[in-house]
Automatic annotation (TrEMBL):
Coiled coil: none annotated. It comes from Pelecanoides urinatrix. It catalyses: urea(in) = urea(out); H2O(in) = H2O(out); glycerol(in) = glycerol(out). Belongs to the MIP/aquaporin (TC 1.A.8) family. Keywords: Membrane, Transmembrane, Transmembrane helix, Transport. The chain crosses the membrane at residues 20-39, 59-81, 102-122, 160-178. Its main location: membrane. This is AQP10 protein. It is found in: Membrane.
Length: 248
């Protein structure tokens, strides 16, 4: 029929034949979905004063976001979704070095635009909760909805160790799951296993720095808050911010 013919022509016209372009779009979509769900769960919890979510629901949403985003992107881009994982694959000679800056840029951009989507979705809630003051510290701060911040007691050295250890555990766990010499995860359930790994890390290592374990997940949203009105304080290590770590 005419409709079928039109749809075939439209699909042919819209089809992206360049392999790298398809990989970048898949990685962009995966990171966008990951950050959209992750930050939305934090926004729902914070702006409702904890009445429509708590720390566990936020962690659970973050883990499920990993599962969904991996399923969406793994068949095209490999679903790296994380600059640290892309770098690790380069070091293991499983990913070309020339693709690394491209993937990292796409991952950060995906996190940035997802932050904008969350801000738009929860704009009224954020304005109501903060009384219109976009701050990084204090009892009504909202910056920690988007990026991760250290707990009041945390030193820079301990914060560095916290992030390195959490990220290393994430990468080691994923590599172990993908190692064919190990007892493998049932085919098709790898994203579920990764989600459970992330949930375990969040539940056990989330109180110090809110468990970013993904440079793009932290830097993209942090950059968004800088340009959206929270100011340059989002890039400063400030003691006694208020809530500090633990909200995400």
């Amino acid at each position: 029929s005419g409709t079928t013919s039109f749809l075939k022509r439209a699909r042919a016209l819209l089809r992206i034949r360049n392999k790298l372009a398809r990989e970048c779009l898949a990685e962009l979509l995966g990171v966008f979905v990951l950050i959209l769900i992750n930050l939305s769960s934090a926004a729902q919890m914070v702006t409702s004063f904890g009445k429509k979510g708590d720390i566990f629901s936020s962690y659970l949403a973050g883990a499920l976001a990993i599962m969904v985003s991996v399923y969406m992107a793994v068949g095209v881009s490999g679903a790296h979704l994380n600059p640290a994982f892309s770098l690790t694959l380069c070091l293991l000679e499983q990913f070309p070095w020339w693709k690394l800056p491209i993937y990292v840029a796409v991952q950060v951009f995906g996190a940035f635009i997802a932050s904008g989507a969350v801000y738009a979705l929860y704009y009224d809630a954020i304005q109501h909760y903060s009384n219109g003051n976009l701050t990084v510290s204090g009892p009504r701060e909202t910056a920690s909805i988007f990026a991760t911040y250290p707990a009041d007691y945390l030193s820079i050295s301990n914060g560095f160790l916290d992030q390195v250890m959490g990220t290393a555990l994430l990468i080691a766990g994923i590599l172990a799951m993908l190692d064919t010499r190990n007892k493998g995860v049932p085919k098709g359930l790898e994203p579920v296993a990764v989600a459970l790994l992330v949930l375990a890390i969040e539940l056990s290592m989330g109180s110090n720095c809110s468990c970013a374990i993904n440079p793009a997940r932290d830097f993209g949203p942090r950059l968004f808050t800088y340009v959206a009105g929270w100011g340059s304080e989002v890039f400063r290590w400030v003691e006694g911010r208020g809530r500090g770590g633990g909200w995400q």
